[in-house]
C-alpha cells in the first residue's frame, strides 16, 4: 500500500512491499552468487596491487631521470637549437591567438578555455528504504520524496516510482559546452594538447556588470535565466553560468606580461547593433611547464623507464618544486590504489566465506560468533596477501625491500595463530 503527503514544494509517499521469508536453499543460492562475485573481486585485487607497484616505481624512476636531465630555459621568447629534443623547464604567462566566443550570449573572453554550464529546474526523486520481519514475511518500507532542484543533467522522470505530478522535460533547449583555444603559447613555445588539457582550474565568470543579452533571457547574479520569474522558477526553466580557465593576453594598461587582461564583450544585436561593452581584470596567468622541446613545440618526453613526462602547474615554480609535487602526487595515487586493492581483497574473501555464515544463520549466538570470526579471518588474510602481492611487485625493482615486505606479510597470520588456544592448534 502507499501513503501520500505534501510538505510544501517537497512531496513524498511511502510504499510497503512484502515477500515470504527466503528458505535455506534460496539463501544458499544467493550466497553462491555472492561467492562468484567475491572470487572476481579477489582476483582483481591481485592484478590491481601488482600493477600499481610497477606503475609507482616506474613513475618514481622516470621522475628521478627527468630531474637529472631537465634544463631550465633562460628566455621563453627565443628558441635555442641546442635544446632541441631535450627536457626543458620554463615559466611564463599564457597567451592565445584569439578570444573564445559564445555567440548565443554574445560573450567573448581571452582565455584558454571557456565553459558554458546549463542547468534545468526539475524534479528529483529521493529514496530511503528499510527492511524488517513481520509475521514470517520480509517487508520493505520505501519512502519516496520529490523536490525541485537545479541540475546540470536531465533527470529521467520515467524512472520515478510515481511520475504523475513529477514529470520533467526530456531534453534541454540549450546545451552545455566547453570551448578550447586552438593555439596556446608560453612565450614563443606552443603547448601540446596534453599540456592544454592540464589547464583545468576553472573559475566562475562574474556577470554582475552585464545586461540581458536577449528579451527572453534575464540576468540574475552570475546567471542568465530562461525563466519568466527567476525568483520562482518552474520545472523546465534554465539557468546558464560561465567558467574560464587559463586567462591569457597582455594589455598596455595593466603592465608586464606577468599580468593578464580579461576582456568581456556583450553585443546587443537586437537592440544596439555593433555596440560592445568590455571590462578588464588584472590577474596572474603564469604557468610552469616541463616537457620536451621540438622546434617551437612543447611535447611529451619519453623516459628510458617507459613513462611520459608532460607537466604543467599554475604559478612560477622551480624545477625542484615541480618534481617534488609530482613525487607527492605519485605517492598519494599509489597509497589510494593500495587501499582500493586491499579493500577489494577483503570484500572478495568476505563474500567467498559467507557460505559458513549462511549454514548457521538460524542459531543467533553461533551466527554472531561465526560472523566475527569470518571478518577477522578476512582481515588477516587480506592484509597478508596484499603485503605479499606488493612485495612481488617490488621484486624486479627493489629486491631487498621486496624481501622485507614478504617477511612482514607473515606477521598478521602469526598474530592470529598466537590467539588460538593450544588445544585447538593441536
Automatic annotation (TrEMBL):
Keyword Nucleus tagged: yes
Membrane topology: Multi-pass membrane protein
The keyword Membrane is assigned to this record: yes
Taxonomy, superkingdom: Eukaryota
Keywords of this entry: Endoplasmic reticulum, Membrane, Nucleus, Transmembrane, Transmembrane helix
Pfam families per UniProt: TMEM43
Cellular localization per UniProt: Endomembrane system; Endoplasmic reticulum membrane; Nucleus envelope
InterPro entries named in the record: TMEM43_fam (IPR012430)
Gene Ontology cellular component list: endoplasmic reticulum membrane; nuclear inner membrane
Main location: membrane
Residues that span the membrane, as ranges: 32-50, 335-356, 376-396, 401-420
GO biological process assignments: lipid metabolic process; nuclear membrane organization
UniProt record similarity statement: Belongs to the TMEM43 family.
Name this protein carries in UniProt: TMM43 protein
Lineage: Eukaryota, Metazoa, Chordata, Craniata, Vertebrata
